[in-house]
Write a structure and sequence with these properties.
Blueprint: E1 9-14, E2 19-24, H1 35-50, E3 56-61, E4 65-67, H2 72-76, H3 83-100, E5 105-109, E6 112-114, H4 116-122, E7 126-130, E8 134-136, H5 150-158, H6 160-169, E9 173-174, H7 175-181, E10 186-188, H8 193-205, H9 209-222, H10 227-242, H11 245-255
Parallel strand pairs: 2-3, 3-5, 4-6, 5-7, 6-8, 7-10
Antiparallel strand pairs: 1-2, 8-9
The structure holds ligand T3D.
Length: 265
């Protein structure tokens, strides 16, 4: 049984870089998700939403795994909720918290991402994988269906044909193939993953926060928009972005040939 005294989700904040890091921390169980861990994960994203010093977030795993999905031992234990309830009340809020977070999330995929762990990776805005990482939908291997947004993210990231193969065959894929399929944006040597993720997150944190938040929202909204609706939505959010002090600062910085200093106003 999981040891409740151990903090299974760690949150670290680097105010100088503007970066918050969320680390799944059950390395002995490959960061498999328990009920307290799922609740802590939602709380972590909500906390980072409130933290003014944080402008970009990293999600990663402790040890050799990113996340092996649902803790299967916990599910077999007494008091496990019916699956529909578990998904609705414990998994979906994580994915909603991630997609609703007005700050970009960089997934630093350090090792295996299986089942709901693969869904967590897919819910990040930017995915950087270690060359030691593997991905597996895995749900089918225990007689379940992809959840936590996997059926929504997967075809959008890799296309319908590849999504069907990954979701129906449940075979593990290596980091290099994940990059080739579009499941991750880039693969780096394992030893460089943390540095690379921090560097990307710091670059995001130095950007104009409102514009980044609106861009994240628009990219998600575009999946359900036709071209006309997307064009109108862009006009609306451009109007909002154009009224920020950061827009004025970006323009001034361009004319003055200096780096902009975005305040988030
Ligand atoms: O609530 C609900 O159930 C609904 C939601 C479902 C969402 C899902 O995520 S369903 C899919 C659940 N995940 C899986 O089916 C993956 C199960 N794990 C594996 O297939 C393999 O462990 C991996 C491919 C991920 C890694 O293989 P390998 O050989 O590198 O490691 P290992 O030896 O299998 O695992 C190391 C330890 O982690 C081991 O513990 P031990 O024997 O040393 O004490 C293993 O039992 C534990 N572990 C790995 N995955 C899980 C796990 N323990 C509990 N739950 C796991 N998912």
């Amino acid at each position: 049984m999981p040891d409740d005294s151990v903090q299974t989700v760690l949150v670290e904040i680097d105010p100088a870089a503007g970066v918050g890091t969320v680390t799944l921390n059950r390395p002995d169980a490959l960061n498999a998700l328990t009920v307290p861990m799922k609740e802590a994960l939602v709380a972590a994203f909500r906390r980072l939403d409130r933290e003014k010093a944080v402008r970009a977030v990293i999600l990663t795993g402790a040890g050799r795994a990113f996340c092996a999905g649902q803790d299967l031992r916990e599910r077999l234990g007494p008091g496990a909720a019916p699956l529909g309830v578990e998904v609705r009340e414990r998994y979906n809020p994580i994915i909603r918290a991630m997609r609703g977070l007005p700050k970009p999330i960089v997934g630093a995929i350090n090792g295996v991402a299986a089942g709901a762990g693969a869904s967590l990776a897919m819910a990040c805005d930017i995915r950087i994988a270690s060359d030691a990482a593997t991905f597996a939908l895995a749900f089918g291997r225990v007689g379940l269906v992809p959840d936590s947004g996997a059926t929504w993210f997967l075809p959008r990231l890799v296309g319908a044909a590849r999504a069907a193969e990954l979701a129906l065959l449940n075979e593990p894929i290596a980091a290099a193939d994940a990059e080739r399929f579009g499941l991750v944006g880039r693969v780096v040597p394992a030893a460089e993953l943390a540095t690379e993720a921090r560097s990307v997150a710091a670059r995001l944190a130095a950007g104009a926060p409102r514009a980044i938040a609106l861009t994240k929202r628009a990219l998600d909204a575009a999946w359900s928009h036709d071209l006309d609706a997307a064009l109108e939505y862009e006009a609306q959010i451009q109007d909002l972005a154009g009224r920020t002090n950061d827009h004025a600062e970006g323009m001034a910085a361009f004319l003055e040939k200096r780096a902009p200093r975005f305040s988030g106003d």
